[in-house]
Design brief:
By secondary structure, the protein is α/β, with parallel strands linked by helices. 36% of the residues lie in helices and 15% in strands.
Length: 382
């Protein structure tokens, strides 16, 4: 078995058979000609299937150790399609501090169609057990979670939900298949915002599902085709291009994450740093068991809320923007950017307050990033 870094470079098809192209061609065609009545090349219409998108789907299945891959125009499109596996009246347990857009999709849309969601701290298995009902059919976890960096036991969750004949869905966006493979730990479905680490350059939107369930593949593929949130050929190509350097980038993201997390922990104006790479992180041992690294994601509390506007206005190299996982370092204020859709009581319970900052460490030099933060974070007098 080739090592991950090699697989990411070559993908499922290292050379395109028809032309010998090393870079997968962009099949920018809406429709495909049939050889004769009742015959097909395997491609009919790009909403249904496209060769460039198919290369990405098959490559992601390889990288995540699954049989099937589906690519969407965004991570939210992928998550919305996964809900088609359930029926109105079904109950899903969901990580409480996951991306706010997922909360909005579930709570403001699918809840109106009769789906039932419970939001719990899934890093505490006792809370999962307490939230379980006879109609519980799914567990949707984000690990590490966004933005509190909590780690949920994937294997334990898989064993638990399978006893009720339900599905475990894992959002693997924060670690990517370079650092974590949830299917190997018993998860049924892995979902990614391909916009983030997979494409890696802040230049495209994408969503990915990987799994190995034949019956579910029919449901998901029909939903993908019927709803039409499929990934365009050019965006599929951009994501494929990004994947070629995933191993290199993730190593640098993690290297920078460790250095910046350590710097922030020692800063007098920082109250607490949330980073899974710390030995004293509450789930560090679990993270080390089920993942091979910690990426470049960090969250932290400033000691005073009034420091926030100064910090966000003063960073120069680190860009004040939503999203994560790109080559450029980004700083985000979850309260108003990524988690504003979550009700205040629930948001505060999860730890998302007015002093929380999230940083996605890019691949710049760590010393330059630290110098930028040093100039931007007000120093509390001691």
């Amino acid at each position: 078995m080739k090592k991950a870094g090699t697989l990411f470079v070559h993908g499922i098809t290292p050379v395109e058979a028809g032309t010998g192209a090393i870079s997968t061609p962009i099949f920018q065609s809406a429709t495909f000609c049939h050889p004769a009545l009742g015959q097909s090349t395997g491609y009919d219409y790009s909403r249904c299937q496209n060769p460039t998108r198919r290369e990405l789907e098959m490559s992601m299945a390889l990288f995540e150790h699954g049989k099937y891959g589906l690519a969407f125009s965004s991570g939210m499109g992928a998550i919305s399609t996964l809900i088609k596996l359930f029926q109105p009246g079904d109950h899903l347990i969901v990580s409480e501090d996951l991306y706010g857009g997922t909360f909005r999709l579930f709570n403001e849309y699918y809840a109106h169609y009769g789906y039932i969601f419970s939001w719990v701290d899934t890093s505490d298995f006792a809370k999962i057990e307490a939230a379980t009902r006879p109609e519980t059919k799914g567990l949707f976890i984000e690990t590490p979670s966004n933005p509190m960096m909590k780690v949920t036991d994937i294997r334990h969750c898989a064993d638990f939900i399978h006893r009720t004949r339900g599905y475990l869905i894992v959002d693997n966006t924060f670690l990517s298949p370079y650092f974590q493979n949830p299917l190997d730990l018993g998860a049924d479905f892995v979902v990614h915002s391909g916009t983030k680490y997979l494409s890696g350059h802040n230049d495209t939107l994408a969503g990915i599902i990987v799994h190995s369930n034949y019956e579910a593949e029919e449901v998901l593929r029909q939903a993908q085709m019927s709803e039409g949130a499929t990934l365009a050929p050019f965006d599929a190509w951009l994501t494929l291009r990004g994947l070629k350097t995933l191993a290199l980038r993730m190593g640098k993201h993690e290297e920078n994450g460790k250095k910046i997390a350590a710097y922030l922990r020692a800063h007098p104006s920082v109250e607490k740093v949330f980073y899974t790479g710390f030995d004293d992180h509450p789930q560090h041992a679990l993270s080390s068991y089920q993942a091979r690294g910690h990426s470049g994601m960090i969250s932290f509390y400033l000691k005073k809320a009034e420091y926030v506007p100064k910090l966000l206005a003063s960073v120069k190299l680190i860009l004040f923007a939503e999203s994560l996982g790109g080559v450029e370092s980004l700083i985000t204020y979850p309260l108003v950017q990524t988690h504003s859709a979550i009700p205040e009581e629930m948001r505060l319970s999860a730890g998302v307050n007015d002093r929380l900052i999230r940083i996605s460490c890019g691949i710049e030099e760590a010393d330059d990033l630290i110098e930028d933060l040093e100039a931007a974070i007000p120093r509390q007098s001691t």
